[in-house]
Amino acid sequence: TEILNEGAGTTKFEVGILRPGFIRATVDGDLAFHMVSDGVNLSWFEPNSNSYGVLKSAPTIDGAVDIVKSHLSFGFPVGDILANEAYARNIRSDTAVTYAGTAQVGGHAVDHVKLESPRATVDLFVDQESHLLHKLVLTTKDSKKPYHYEVAFASWDLNAGLTPPDFVFHKPAGAERIDPPADAAAKKRVE
To answer: CB-based contacts of 118: which residues, under 8 Å, 6+ apart?
Structure first.
């Protein structure tokens, strides 16, 4: 999967989940990291600084995504759409959901669904054959710091055969343990 950030190039990532509480992600590029939550601990490794950290996690994917948002300066890739309650997390009473028709994305016939709120516009492109998300485009409407990114899902493996041992964090040799930045949540609120 790729995140195509406006002005920041392309970042490739891979995410694996095992419901209800196991989630992992590997992100390459300038902001590279590897993160794992096993429902007890949330651990991450940042290869660019050769550092890692551990926090108490939550027993659900939703809880792990929330912990990352509130305690770390980076986010879990597409965490909100992989959450157990994705619709409830992302659709509020002021969100209009409309069917915008069909399109071609990367040679695939897709249905285009648009979610519009005062805060952001989200365009979802759902593959007509597999009914899986093919592309997501998010544009915020924040006048101080608007944000735009696109996620192109390269592949889905719904039968990956993941088991709990696939979500064990192995401390990298020689890596320095760090505590999460105490001001990460406050910094994110200010930005």
So the answer is: 94, 141
pTM of the model: 0.75
Burial of 140 (0-12, 13-18, 19+ CB in 10 A): middle
pLDDT tens profile 20-66: 899 999 988 777 889 999 999 999 999 999 999 999 999 998 899 88
Sequence letter at residue 79: G
The region that residue 86 occupies, defined by phi over 0 for left and psi between -120 and 50 for alpha, beta otherwise, is alpha
Tally Cβ neighbours within 10 Å of residue 92: 11
The full DSSP string for 63-78 is: HHHHHHHHH-SS--TT
Q: Is 107 left (phi over 0), alpha (psi -120 to 50) or beta?
A: left
Write the DSSP symbol of residue 7: T
Helices and strands: H and E segment counts in the chain: 4, 12
Q: How does pLDDT run across 83-116, given as a tens digit for each residue?
A: 666 666 667 788 899 999 999 998 999 999 999 9
Tell me the three state secondary structure of residue 8. coil
Checking DSSP bridges between strand 51-56 and strand 176-177, what pairing results, if any? Answer: parallel
Contacts of 131 (CB under 8 A, 6+ apart): none
158 strand-pairing partners: none
Tell me if 117 sits within 8 A of 98, measured CB to CB.
Answer: no
